[in-house]
Structures are given as structure tokens and as C-alpha cells.
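task queued by scheduler; priority normal; single chain, no ligands, no partner chains; default sampling; output format set to C-alpha cells
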Amino acid sequence: MRISTLPRANTSFSTFLLTGFPGLEWAHHWISLPIFVGYLVALIGNATILHLVRTEPSLQQPMYYFLAILAVTDLGLCMSTLPSVLGVLWFDARRVGLVPCVLQQHFLHSFSFMESAVLFAMALDRLVAIRFPLHYASVLTGPRVALAGAVLGMRSAAITAAPSLHLLKFDYCRPGSLSHAYCLHQDMIRLACSDTRFNRLYGLCIIMLAMGSDVLFILLSYAVILRTVLAIASAGERLKALNTCVSHILAVLCFYVPVLGLSIVHRFGHHTSPLVHILMGTVSVLFPPLMNPVIYSIKTQQIRRAILKVVSLGKIQ
């Protein structure tokens, strides 16, 4: 008896179509203006933070070293999406090849995991500074902070390597557009006709283990910080200790709230307008790099003074 088998599609697509703002193509140039300004402010702001930490002696402390690592991560997050987003909005350059698409999603997800890990490391920095102030400078030295940054970077790149390599091997026989103006892992496996079970399961596990553990440890760190602060007798000292954490708490919210919102929209918003998905996706990749330098420049006195010093020197010259 002859057993029939399902025919396999002979066509495998090697290019993908990025998506701008469906139905608003006529306004892409206008829509691109606030997005371009957002990218520009994010790039200038994070580059300024890096310059100040490198050149200003008062900022050569562990807290600001971690802030510099966060700024590098934010620059990488911006540069991962900027070319394709502005390419779609300015030039309608929607077509992207398989290899560039895989590379883009790899760097985008790697820097996202890196951002989460750096925020956790910064929570530990605040914990050591408040819980063990006398040992702070000896525990978190410059070389140790640099080593931590290198380890977190390699960890973030390594955990996204396996699914990225699998994406290169998949057959893509389902024509269709990606959901955003940049490539995402979940978008690419949606268009694949190969067995994607490993990528789906691996992606879910990594998000739960990596970002989930980062969030858990951040919450535990702040539970210990709050307990330590409440044990301080002086109300002024309690307020001073908590003020050193405000910028970091805001940075955590700027990163995780848009990510959570995008996840909810992808999971439960099947009947919502595609514009909602695209808007949330744009916010999730642009908002943290844009707001982090703004938050730290406003809320951190040493950085504010360093910026004013640079501006005043520029006026004198």
C-alpha cells in the first residue's frame, strides 16, 4: 500500500518585508520626524554620558561605571533598529535579506537582554552602597565593574546565538510582512515552514530565566535596600539613601513597562489595530535609550554639574 505524504513547498523566500505604519504611508515623512528626533536625542544623550564618565574625575565611581555600561547598551539598542526604521519611513526600503534580518534580530535581542542584566547589576550596586557603605569602594572596583560588563555582554550574545543560527537554516515558504520596521525572532519564526519548536521553547525559557530572574533579583535587592534604609535612625539619612535609588527605579520602569505592554499586546491584542502593535514596538526599543540619559541628567546632581561645567567651558571658549 502506498503511503501518501504532504507535499513540501518548493519555494523558499530569502527576503522579508518590513512594515511601517499601515494606512499612513502618505504620512511616513511626518511620522519620521519625532522618531528621528528621539533617536538623535538618545544617541547624543548616551554619548554624552559616556564622555562625562570618561573625562570627569567626580564620576569615576562604580555607580557611574555601571551607568556607562548602560549607555553603551542603549547606543547598541538604538543602532540595532535605526537604519531599518528610518529606511522604511524615509525611503520605503521595506525589503531585507535573510542574513541582515537574522543579524538585526540577534543584536536587538542581545542588547535587550544586556539592558535587563545591567539594570540588575545596578540594583546590586545600590544594595552594596547602602548596605555596606564602608566596603563599597573596595568591593566594586573599576576592573571588577569592567569585568562584570564584559561577562554580561558575552552572556547576552551567547544566549541569543542558538536561535539565531537556527533561523538561518529555516525554510521560509510563507510570504508575508514582518510586524515592525525591524526584524524580531518571533516574527521570523511565524513565516517559517520548518520545525520551529526548538526556537519557540528556547525563546520562552530564556525570557523566563534571563529577564525573569533579573526582575526577581531587582525586587529582592530593593527589598533588602528598603529594610536597611528603614533601620537608619535619621530621617534625613533615610531620604538621602533612597534618593540615590530614584534614577535607577525610573530606568527599570522605562525598560520593563514598555516590554510588558508589548508582550500583552502581542498575546491578547489579536483583534487590535496593527498600528497599536507597531506603536508599542517602536516605544519598547526607543523609549529606554531616550529616557535613561534624561533621567540620570535630571536626577543625579554630579552628572548635572558635569554637564553644566562642559556647557560653561564651551561658552568661555
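post-processing summary
- The chain has a mean pLDDT of 91.
- The longest strand covers residues 15-17.
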